[in-house]
Design brief:
The complex is a heterodimer. Chain A is an alpha+beta fold. Chain A has 5 helices and 3 strands. The termini of chain A are far apart. Chain B has 2 domains: 7-31 and 298-417, Aspartate Aminotransferase, domain 1; 45-296, Type I PLP-dependent aspartate aminotransferase-like (Major domain) (Aspartate Aminotransferase, domain 2). Chain B has helices at 7-15, 42-55, 65-84, 99-114, 133-142, 184-193, 213-216, 241-246, 281-297, 299-317, 347-356, 369-375, 391-408; strands spanning 23-24, 27-28, 30-31, 93-96, 120-124, 145-149, 166-172, 197-201, 220-224, 235-239, 257-260, 265-267, 323-326, 337-342, 359-360, 362-364, 380-384. In chain B, the strands form 5 sheets. Chain B has a 7-stranded mixed sheet, sandwiched between helices. A 4-stranded antiparallel sheet of chain B has the order 13-14-17-16, with helices on one face. The chains are: A alpha+beta, B alpha/beta.
Chain lengths: 140, 419
Amino acid sequence: MLEELYQEIILDHYRRPRNRGKAVPADLAYKDSNPLCGDEIEVTATLVDGKIKDIKFDGHGCSICLASSSIMTGKLVGKTLAEALNYIENFQKMMRGDIPFGGKEMGDLKALEGVLKFPVRVKCATLAWHTAHRGITAKL
Amino acid sequence: MIERLDAVELEEIRDDFPILQQRVHGKPLIYFDNAATSQKPRQVIETLNDYYRRYNANVHRGIHALAERATREYELARHTIAKFINAPAPETVVFTRGTTEAINLVAYSWARANLKQGDEILITWMEHHSNIVPWYQVAAATGAVIKRIDLNADGTLAIPAINPRTKLVAVTQCSNVLGTINPVKELAAAAHKVGALILVDGAQSVPHLAVDVQALDADFFVFSGHKMLGPTASGVLYGKRALLEGMPPFMGGGEMIREVSATGFTTNDLPYKFEAGTPNIAESIGLGIAVDYLQKVGLDKIRQHEKEITAYALERLQEMIEIKIYGPLDAEKRGGLVAFTFSDIHPHDLATFFDQEGIAIRAGHHCAMPLHKHLGIGATARASFYLYNTRAEVDALVATLQKAKKFFGACPTGRALGF
């Protein structure tokens, strides 16, 4: 059971987070927190021609929160803001159980499926995504 | 001679708690989240059942047998609780839904009527949100100012800056994070010297140590039933009679009135003035039975047991270099709980890992965000003990921490300090 939550990919992203820090220039910046646990994530992105050229996250949180943030940045880079929003909303639906987990372009993201078996931890996995969503929406 | 729970008594106590006789994720349940809420003995569970099966009726109104019995049991509970905290009279004990409601009652009724611009409300860094937010609201409504007593490095209170502008000291008797037991008797004396009142939050103390509100000279003393073997939505506001009598009612409705005319009302006597509407009858009766249970075991024995468990936990946890414990390291100075961080493993990850081993701990900021910010941490893990916990369970806690360390491995970037 525990191994489903803490898959190797998750622990790898947790121990060696990708895209940690601040994107410069930060054309888009948004910080949000989970008031229940105090986890805080800031997402920053550099935009070129309406596309996300660089995206980074910073903050503090549990392994699920940080791994999910790290995976997210890898998924959103290169996308237009509209594509990114769409991608984020799709992931949010999966984490709510509205649509089945899967589809194209999953890659490392698949590792977060195990979180669904731990309902209290879903909010950990979605914090960065909600933060990015708000940041992008504010920009559009 | 120090009285302690012996092995037989401990086993008998554990047998009284049906919820402890289960496995969680295939492991025997170890319940270490007592500071959030305690478990209930069958005596309390049966009381609730008995009330609804045999004498459910509204109190203080009906002229029938059920109403008479419900009223009698409800008032008996008030007597029991008044004696338990050595309140001078049962009518100084107001039933509330818990600590939060009791503090709000004082904030809305006493504070709004008595505080003005520039008056100071003195709290501490270690208060629970329920003893912070109502005062922020009072400050916004009256222009009063919030001040805080500083913390010493060991998690005890510094010498408070009580001054003539101080009108109220609102302080917890025992911190739900640091475990620190505060010198409320001395604080009460200091407050009274400048003419201020003191409200003592007993949510984490009344369940675990003998409290005498008159000896403490507390003006207001509040606590929750659900943390002391009682039902949820039970709790108490104790107040000095003259204060309670002088305060306007908190909520209006049935029960709190003596007479209602076409244009106004007169208020009922204490404590009913503050118990508008149909009260939490079953819960308050259940709390009375919980107090009976605690008294039968003996508060001094319970305190001694928890002190020993806590001292043992502090000793075992400190065997690991990765541990950081918050609050005093002397079990004499703290209640039966230990908040800690472990290596770079986030408390949420620890809590999930513990849960899989059948061990319930709490992770997060424990409704004390200002304290965590003050300490410069996002979250802590907390194990909190009660009369039914054992040394063997503490051993399981330590063994599980060691397992967690192996599982999560070294995470040098794990606890990032972002901002």
